## 1
Amino acid sequence: MEYIRTDIPDIVLIKPRVFGDHRGFFMETFRQSEFDEICGHHEFVQDNHSGSPQGILRGLHYQVKNTQGKLVRVVAGEVFDVAVDIRQGSPTFGKWVGQVLSAENKHQLWVPGGFAHGYLVISEWAEFVYKTTDYYAPEWERSLLWNDPAIGIEWPMVKGQQPTLSEKDANAPVLAEAETFPAS
């Protein structure tokens, strides 16, 4: 696998080597020793799988306790995946990284704890799978407003339409009012 640090060095794009022939393809999606060397050692405790139609935006989510690192990928369709640094004192606080993840490109993104995360479905349908480093804890889950102008995420709007959001995500606070991670 190829590991590529993004503009926020803690966020890592992972490009697996894909081997294909007349039977289809094979790829390794995770190797603990390589991941530990590049991203640090993290124990994954939960796998999640969601499916959504075009125009759905999920996020930007994070947990203030039981903080989750996420190793994300798409197994059907295509999404625009985003991570926002919400670690106070970080040189990249309030900055974002976005990557297109698709079943076709087979890329993955490592999003460590301390980041708000979300994605927009840009294909007709997408299935999104991810591993987490801690369990889902709804009492600690928070959302950050997807279109906070202070962050300025450049979402690739599908057909110029506003995304479909959950009520929680539509009413999320902007970064200046959100609960973030204290400086370490």
Note: The helical segments are 32-39, 167-170.
## 2
Amino acid sequence: MKLTALTLILLMSTMVWAQNDEIYLKNYNLKKQIALEGYDPVSYFNGSPLEGKSELKLTFRGAIYFFVNPQNLSTFKINPEKFEPAYGGWCAYAMGETGEKVKIDPKTFKIVNGKLYLFYNFWGNNTLTDWNKDENTLKIKAEQNWKKFLQ
């Protein structure tokens, strides 16, 4: 009886994890399952986003992350959630302002309280500038809007 209950619990937790991965892949900013347009997530926290190498990759929640060196890959493995971008890697400003998924420039970013935020920066429109004008309000709205995508 105990073995059957344990098996059932493990099966259900696997199903929930798979469902979460499905939501992740559906809503995150990925191109051919590659996150951050191939930039190394750890490099942002080291001060400068760098393009990762396709031979140094790791799949997390179905998304593929590239890394510039084995050390960054190892760092990511220890705590991958720490390095995931806010709002699935979509523009933080747009998520807060309109609740839309808007593409980003992977070199336009900000780290706030240990979280990576990415922004649209094309054609003279750098949304990081607008974000900085009202970050607290936009962040609250963005959190609310992002939750809708994860249901």
Note: The mean pLDDT is 89.
## 3
Amino acid sequence: MSNEINASSLESLEYIPYIDENGQLPEQLTGKIGVYAIFNQSKLLQFVGYSRDVYLSLKQHLIRQPEQCYWIKTQTIERPSRSALESIESAWIEENGSVPLGNGKNKEKWTQPINVKALMTSEEQLSYQNPNNDELAQMKIIKNVARRVEAEILKFLADRGLQIELRFNPKLKEEGLLDLK
């Protein structure tokens, strides 16, 4: 029994809109195992990844990098095989001719929860660093920063026509992190 996967070239795959005309993400990828490439508005490759649920991964990337997620290309496989997925991912990056920023120096922005401390306004920083603040006061400030950043992301995506509900993990907000539940 062969575990051989026929990898499609990135070039040969169709572009799929990240957010379709009905404001939905590509629901046909729900629960699908596969490799995906994310492109910006100009169809420049930003990130290549693989997942056991491509749809959920696409949702996470959309909130982490909403300005970069406009088009996707994907190849799904039936059975999970990390080596097959890694092999397709590597082939696509090689085919691109250079490592996309999302797989290089900006990988953390694509693969880790958003750290809102880095997005604080100068007023929020001053308030947070106030020596009279105890831990609870700081947690409240960081939670409010997380709420502000979350609202900005949701507004940006609503302006792009997104119609699906995105639920952020409330526990992470206390730590100054934003990620979907």
Note: Strands lie at 16-17, 33-39, 45-51, 71-77, 114-115, 177-178.
## 4
Amino acid sequence: MPSKHVLQILLLTADPDLAELYRHECPEGVVTIAKDAASALRKSPKRRFDAVIVESRKDWMGQVQALCEIAGQAPPVVLVGATPFLRRASETVKGFTNGGLSKRTNSKLPQDLGFDEYISAKLRDFVRRMKLGAGSDLHPLIIKAVEKPLIALVLEETNGNQNQAAALLGLNRNTLRKKIQELKIPLAKAKKG
């Protein structure tokens, strides 16, 4: 049986939560974590990396160039972005560990999922990330995160008519007004109706 190539990943970040996320998401790969290229090269001077992931900052291009000069070639994959982007990208990187895409728990594409399945998958990712970041009080946080875009979307669909929006949401109009204020939904989107 041929041996599988283990993906060598270099993550350049100063964010310990991001580092922990990649360690957790890519257990079948080797994840080297360093603050910059110089410290990465001290940790693993002769290692070639299959993917370099860089938390964006002003000198990110210099970091990648330093790695290329030492290795003699550019890594096949370079991913640069802000922390929120790199958090979302961890799932994709996980798919490439051990030389192939990992099996998905659900073989459907996001657009083919039912509403309950889609929400469940998104909540699972969110809860996992909150757990890694030592989050707490998830219930009010998730309710607020869902409620604001829902109300804004309904107001948009009803052209800002608060009577129609309240009826569609199953809320009293005064309750809707209160939520618009609490959630700081701009009145430009929420015209009085």
Note: Strands lie at 8-12, 30-34, 51-55, 77-81.
